[in-house]
Write a structure and sequence with these properties.
Elements lengths: L2 E5 L14 E7 L6 E6 L3 E6 L4 E5 L14 E6 L8 E6 L19 E6 L4 E5 L21 E6 L21 E6 L3 E6 L4 E6 L17 H4 L3 E7 L1 H5 L3 E7 L4 E6 L6
Length: about 260
Amino acid sequence: TLLMWGSSEHGKLGNGVSDRTAELFPKKVEGLAPVVFISLGSTYAACITSDDRVFAWGFNAHGNMGIGTRQSHSLPQEIITLRGKGVNKIHCATGQVNPVVLPNNEGTEGPHTVAVTRDGRLYSFGTAHKGILGNLKDKTLRPVGCDQLTPYLVGSAFSDHPETMKSGYLDGLKVIQAVSSSIHTAILSDDGAVRCCGCGSTGRMGIRKYMEGLSGGRSRMKCYVPAPTVIEELQERHLHATSISTSHFGGAVSPSGSWPRA
């Protein structure tokens, strides 16, 4: 049984209410089979049920619910295209308490969602701003036409170059965890490597591209990386990550092993 409480803004409690009233006590979310996994974003939520179905509800102006529209919903909606795909983990974007809502949110900054399957595939959906979905080759800032309103299989054809056979991102890797924050994504594969894509400003992705070939603080704010890129420092220290987490300005990993002495 899924119980939720707190602010009902954007319909993110899944109880049919979408105003700023607060649910002070746990309340059952109706209409779902037993829930086996839940993820809460800042403005929306998603879950996986025991019958191998995936649902989302709340704010959806950027297609981050993956249901094919930009319409928000205060009741759970099934992500039909993920049915039967074996999704066992899903992560909703955090760090966007007051998202900007424009007449047409195409190509603007907003939430995105990532879902991992049992066999290690990664799906992403929502805004493609700054390359956070891993679906772009080179058009990263305000990439109109590249938002994903339904789940995109990372590694398939580029959304900004659909004539391409496939991007090859994450080829040969088995993804075991992926997490999304406001403007970047972190991905953990079964070999213990961590890869990030999206906006690398403030060094939040931990990759060297942020430090190389740049001069001055302003240019570092323009570090957009559409390809999932390995965190070199972890790899070179032979650290095998076992878990990852992100926030608006940075990320964290839980490695096995210990740091070598200098």
